[in-house]
């Protein structure tokens, strides 16, 4: 495969990204009309989900993996307004789509037909916070004409009235260092309440969504993905759920084989 270093614009700044393209003439089967846009979870960076792109590029799926702004492990961009981040950060999936398309066509100019709306298959994927962003991006008008679906790893909904792991003294203590890895506007006191509220009111309707959550994911909890699945089904989405035995929340790279297996199952490569 071929790796391209690139950037995506966010307001007056840039955030970093990698593009993974299959290489014709190798063991890869062929270049597929399937394109994956992938991002990471809170306080993390694109390397935490890079294995997803590597495994997919091996079978002909072109991918872009990008850093969310204000996440210092990926880049030193700042989020100056949390309100703007809440309302617009998911639009980076549009920038990722356009950047992947340009780099792909520079490499494979004879494959332009693959990007036509009746040919292209889009995977919007992410881990945890990135998974929620991918769901929000599904409803963007720029993607309306495409055959698309979200693949969400490590995303669930806590039961009402139960103390979530995020709210326990132990978890909060672990964030004292991690919160310094993000822009001050993205501090946990801002992000966690918003994520909880956003999942409850998420305006995702009539979409296809695959949830992947480890049985050992302590952040999502025992039945957090089932609760979230029920919420999505109520909004007339088509939702499937996979629960691997070993996929702890802090190791999203382990989801690579499950993401690949799912796309193979639906014949997207």
Please give the structural blueprint.
Blueprint: E1 2-10, E2 13-21, E3 34-39, H1 50-57, E4 62-66, H2 82-88, H3 92-107, E5 121-127, H4 129-138, E6 147-153, H5 169-178, H6 188-201, E7 208-212, H7 224-233, E8 238-242, H8 256-265
Parallel strand pairs: 3-4, 3-5, 5-6, 6-7, 7-8
Antiparallel strand pairs: 1-2, 2-4
Structural notes for this entry:
The chain is an alpha/beta fold and 269 residues long. The chain has a single domain (2-265), classed as Rossmann fold (3-Layer(aba) Sandwich), CATH 3.40.50.1820. It is built from eight helices and eight strands, in the order E-E-E-H-E-H-H-E-H-E-H-H-E-H-E-H. Helix 1 packs across helix 8 (256-265).
Q: Kindly state the mean pLDDT as a whole number? A: 93
Category from helices, strands and their pairing: alpha/beta
Figure out the total of helices.
8
Order of helices and strands: EEEHEHHEHEHHEHEH
Descriptors for this entry?
alpha/beta, 8 strands, 8-stranded mixed β-sheet, 269 residues, 8 helices, globular, Rossmann fold
In short:
This protein is 32% helix and 20% strand. It contains eight helices and eight strands, in the order E-E-E-H-E-H-H-E-H-E-H-H-E-H-E-H. The protein has helices at residues 50-57, 82-88, 92-107, 129-138, 169-178, 188-201, 224-233, 256-265; strands at residues 2-10, 13-21, 34-39, 62-66, 121-127, 147-153, 208-212, 238-242.
């Amino acid at each position: 495969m071929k790796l391209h270093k690139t950037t995506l614009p966010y307001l007056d700044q840039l955030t970093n990204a990698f593009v993974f393209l299959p290489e014709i003439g190798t063991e890869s089967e062929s270049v597929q009309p399937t394109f994956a846009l992938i991002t990471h979870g809170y306080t993390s960076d694109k390397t935490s989900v890079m294995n997803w792109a590597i495994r997919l590029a091996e079978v002909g799926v072109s991918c872009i993996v990008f850093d969310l702004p204000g996440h210092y492990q990926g880049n030193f961009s700042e989020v100056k307004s949390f309100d703007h981040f809440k309302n617009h950060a998911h639009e980076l999936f549009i920038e990722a789509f356009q950047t992947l398309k340009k780099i792909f066509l520079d490499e494979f100019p004879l494959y332009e037909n693959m990007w036509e709306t009746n040919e292209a298959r889009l995977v919007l994927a992410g881990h945890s916070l990135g998974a929620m962003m991918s769901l929000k991006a599904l409803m963007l008008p720029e993607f309306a004409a495409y055959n698309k679906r979200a693949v969400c790893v490590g995303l669930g909904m806590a039961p009402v009235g139960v103390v979530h792991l995020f709210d326990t003294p132990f978890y909060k203590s672990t964030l004292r260092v991690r919160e310094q890895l993000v822009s001050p506007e993205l501090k946990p006191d801002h992000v966690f309440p918003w994520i909880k509220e956003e999942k409850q009111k998420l305006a995702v309707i009539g979409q296809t969504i695959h949830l992947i959550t480890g049985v050992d994911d302590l952040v999502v909890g025992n039945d957090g993905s089932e609760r979230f699945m029920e919420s999505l089904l109520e909004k007339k989405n088509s939702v499937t759920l996979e629960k691997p035995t070993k996929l702890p929340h802090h190791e999203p790279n382990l989801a690579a084989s499950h993401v690949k297996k799912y796309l193979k199952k639906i014949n997207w490569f």
